[in-house]
């Protein structure tokens, strides 16, 4: 394990996160000693170049880190230094569960999850109904891509507080499709539209960060930050 001091947070390379396909490359932004939650953030589609260093993933991490939370990011199987092969969203759900297991062993705290695009779809499937996960954030949820609609019927049975953040110009999340997904989801839920934002929230990342912070403080009053 190596660590680097950046500002007020230590960035640690995690060497012992393993999923069913092997070692998963991971980074941890360490939190405050009295943090009330830990957080997990998942990246977009690896076949489209998505990694844990993606800008949207980074800003989601910063939103959680602003509350002093430890935040874990990792690369899905077959991505950069993570072992295994891409499994089209199936085995990746097990990667998410392995990351949850790691956070539980390390911190014994309730977990807040955020995922971007492919990471939101896979992460929601893995985290919904998991008693360890206190809240869920879906960024740029893919609702219609490559000629097909994504199936989110499982959200009907997903009891945790959920925040959906999408851009009004998201090419993979048409507004009517995203609104239909959210309408079918179990309460509590909230949908935030970022005006004029595309799928990658270009030039709108600060809006994304503020939306996460505002939602988190409403639902999780133990969170205190600047």
Write the layout of secondary structure elements.
Blueprint: E1 2-6, E2 9-14, E3 18-19, E4 22-23, E5 26-29, E6 38-42, H1 55-65, E7 71-74, H2 91-107, E8 111-116, H3 118-127, E9 133-139, E10 144-145, E11 148-149, E12 162-167, H4 175-184, E13 189-194, H5 205-219
Parallel strand pairs: 6-7, 6-8, 8-9, 9-12, 12-13
Antiparallel strand pairs: 1-2, 2-5, 3-4, 5-7, 10-11
Helix pairs in contact: 1-5, 2-3
> What strand order characterises the main sheet?
1-2-5-7-6-8-9-12-13
Strand content: 25-35%
Number of domains: 1
Q: Number of helical segments? A: 5
How is this structure best summarized?
This protein is an alpha/beta fold and about 230 residues long. The chain has helices at about 55-65, 90-105, 120-125, 175-185, 205-220, and strands at about 1-5, 10-15, 20, 20-25, 25-30, 40, 70-75, 110-115, 135-140, 145, 150, 160-165, 190-195.
What would your notes on this structure say?
- This protein starts with a strand and ends in a 7-residue tail after the last helix.
- It has helices at residues 55-65, 91-107, 118-127, 175-184, 205-219, and strands spanning 2-6, 9-14, 18-19, 22-23, 26-29, 38-42, 71-74, 111-116, 133-139, 144-145, 148-149, 162-167, 189-194.
- It is 28% helix and 25% strand.
- The strands form three sheets. Strands 1-2-5-7-6-8-9-12-13 form a nine-stranded mixed beta sheet, with helices on both faces.
- 48% of the residues are buried.
- It has a single domain, classed as Rossmann fold.
């Amino acid at each position: 394990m190596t660590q680097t001091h950046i500002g007020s947070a230590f960035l640690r390379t995690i060497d012992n996160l393993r999923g069913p396909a092997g070692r998963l490359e991971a980074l941890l932004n360490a939190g405050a000693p009295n943090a009330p939650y830990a957080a997990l953030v998942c990246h977009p589609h690896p076949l489209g170049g998505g990694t844990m260093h993606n800008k949207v993933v980074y800003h989601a991490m910063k939103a959680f880190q602003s509350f002093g939370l430890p935040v874990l990011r990792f690369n899905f199987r077959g991505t950069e230094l993570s072992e295994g092969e891409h499994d089209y969203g199936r085995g990746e759900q097990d990667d998410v569960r392995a990351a949850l297991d790691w956070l539980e062993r390390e911190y014994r705290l309730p977990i807040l999850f955020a995922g971007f695009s492919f990471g939101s779809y896979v992460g929601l499937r893995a985290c919904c109904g998991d008693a360890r996960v206190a809240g869920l954030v879906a960024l740029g949820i893919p609702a219609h891509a490559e000629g097909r609609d994504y199936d989110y019927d499982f959200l009907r049975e997903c009891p945790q507080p959920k925040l959906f953040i999408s851009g009004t110009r998201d090419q993979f999340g048409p507004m009517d499709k995203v609104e239909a997904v959210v309408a079918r989801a179990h309460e509590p839920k909230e949908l935030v539209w970022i005006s004029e934002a595309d799928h990658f929230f270009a030039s709108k990342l600060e809006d994304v960060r503020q939306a996460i912070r505002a939602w988190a403080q409403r639902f999780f009053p133990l969170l205190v930050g600047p």
